[in-house]
Amino acid sequence: MPVDFSLTEEQKQLQALARRFAKEVILPVAAEYDEKEEVPWPVIERLHEVGLLNAIIPEAYGGMGLKMLDEVIVGEELAYACMGIYTIPMASDLGITPVLLAGTEEQKRRFLTPLTQKPALAAFALSEPGNGSDAAALRTRAVRQGDHYVLNGTKMWISNGGEAEWVVVFATVNPELRHKGVVALVVEKGTPGFQAVKIHGKMGQRASGTYELIFEDVKVPVENRLGEEGEGFKIAMNTLNKTRIPVAAGSVGVARRALDEAKKYAKEREAFGQPIANFQAIQFKLADMMIGIETARMYTYYAAWLADQGLPHAHASAIAKAYASEIAFEAANQAIQIHGGYGYVREFPVEKLLRDVKLNQIYEGTNEIQRLIIARHVLAE
Amino acid sequence: MKFVAVIRQVPDGESRLKIQGNRVDLSGATLILDQMDEYAVEETLRLKEKHGGEAIVVGFGPERTEEAIRTALAMGADRGIHVVYEGFADPVAVAEALAGVIQEEAPTLVVTGGQQADWDSQALGAALAEALGVPVVSWTTALELEGETAKAKHDLDEGAEWVRVRLPAVFTTQQGLNEPRYPTLPGIMKAKKKEVKKVAFQGAPKVEILEETIQEKTRLQKILDGKDPVAAAEELVRLLHEEAKVL
């Protein structure tokens, strides 16, 4: 049997757990934290309690060793209730992944094990105020001085940056070397000279903390370097090739929520003497949402499967991320359209879906960058 | 000490049910551990944590019931026993089938849901006590062990009472008995390795289902015009209290 779409018994249980958690713990507080623009620590604590936080950490370091397919199943469920809240554990996995990919045994024990023992987060810092898509143009400097590096520069748009126990910071030892000069350094919270400033006024995903990180003569021990000098860029790209898959999964969750809300409203709302769900103009929108959800979920599972098999997955994760975030944005958009004026106010949940999922088209590589990755794959064949 | 939770798998309350050939068709329904039975599992886990011993989950139903048993194992039960039967069996027949399995375990006590969500029966706990020849306390909201006996609080129509029973006994759950824990991710992983013993159903149903229909609920369409706001408010309160019974 070469193709099998069934979930294992454990995956079904995992899905049930995540679905219940989303419904009982996240959904009731999602609007409140969106409004307050505040990180929901009680939710993070509960995620830790049920074992869903930092669960990709292997069992050898105290984690659950979740595979990408498991992560994707969980991601869709949590994001269904709130994409912003899901971004918190998702961005923690983004911080953990470079350690998994390039860390030594000693580094994995030192950095990963503490994240399994209490509610704690990791973060990943690549973008800067002056560069995002052109990641190799980063300007944060790391200067080697004996047994440590001295770090100077600023990182921008860093999810969990102020909450994280440690941040994987990508810096250059020589900007002229471009990507060949990049080094990945784990900077621990509280290191002198390291400051996190929360970015306020985000359009969506307001429950997730986004930060500007400032490094002023921050001394980072050499034993906190992941891989070798010059390997940082490859580590960052290999990380993103994996972590874009959960972004796709979260997008599917948002799209599913949009469809559920639109369906509910369309059956209740009456116009011209009947529920608007009777009209084909509405039915076609619902059908299009369903087409998007089903195809995006299947492709996301496929990308996750490739990653779990250890097969090349850079193009697949790019396709999944770009496609799922676009069908999700459109689903949220159409859910608002179906709600009419009610969709435009905060009393109904659909406007938040659009505000939240817009970010899925931007972070972890804009969808334009995803298309570059896909095009390179096409042209290389 | 051994604490037994008797469980069943039922359709989720939000599932849409269909009738297919005079029978309820569950193929599109999400099936879950009966929420009243979830209280039973939680109570056996708490008793085990407090007094030591073993928490055993005993399930009755078709092969798929194992999913609900695995959920209970993921919550923390030590092992499961599954009495397998694919068709409908009435509570008295189920109780008689389970009694043999439970007697073999010689448990300290047995807890099960106060009401079975699928057939709305409240008979399983009482029938089980009858089949085991032990006392039953229904609608339990608190349970304490006292050596050879247990003290329990149970709901009455308009109040509650504390009772003492000799053990072993059967307790049926009521909302408020406890707050069931989540089956955690580590729990799910561990549950994989826990034993679920399969036992064939050795009896025969005593009640045969001839036809099933789904209740059609029609709205009362009562509208208060509100021309006299005070009278309308009073009438609304009266309706909520006497008819809707929510106040």
Please characterize this protein's 3D structure:
The complex is a heterodimer of chains A (381) and B (247). With 381 residues, chain A is an alpha+beta fold. In chain A, 52% of the residues lie in helices and 15% in strands. Chain A is built from 11 helices and 10 strands. Chain A has helices at residues 9-36, 41-49, 68-81, 83-102, 105-112, 114-117, 232-268, 280-309, 314-339, 350-358, 367-380, and strands at 122-125, 141-145, 148-159, 166-172, 182-188, 194-198, 210-221, 225-226, 270-271, 274-275. Chain A has a 4-stranded mixed sheet with strand order 1-4-5-8. Chain A has a 4-stranded antiparallel sheet with strand order 2-3-7-6, with helices on one face. A two-stranded antiparallel ribbon of chain A has the order 9-10. In chain A, a hairpin with a 2-residue loop joins strand 9 and strand 10. In chain A, helix 9 (314-339) runs antiparallel to helix 10 (350-358). In chain A, 52% of the residues are buried. The model of chain A has no long low-confidence stretch (mean pLDDT 96). With 247 residues, chain B is of the alpha/beta class. Chain B folds into 2 domains: 2-200, 3-Layer(aba) Sandwich (Rossmann fold), CATH 3.40.50; 220-247, no CATH class. Chain B has helices at residues 35-51, 65-75, 91-105, 124-132, 185-191, 229-243; strands at residues 2-7, 9-11, 18-20, 23-25, 31-33, 54-61, 79-84, 109-112, 136-146, 149-156, 159-166, 170-173, 196-200. In chain B, the strands form 3 sheets. Chain B has a 9-stranded mixed sheet, sandwiched between helices. Chain B has a two-stranded antiparallel sheet with strand order 2-5. A two-stranded antiparallel ribbon of chain B has the order 3-4. In chain B, helix 2 (65-75) links the parallel strand 6 (54-61) and strand 7 (79-84). In chain B, helix 3 crosses helix 4. The model of chain B has no long low-confidence stretch (mean pLDDT 91). The A-B interface holds A 9-10, 12-14, 16-17, 20-21, 49-52, 55, 64, 66 and B 32, 67, 70-71, 74, 182-189, 191-192.
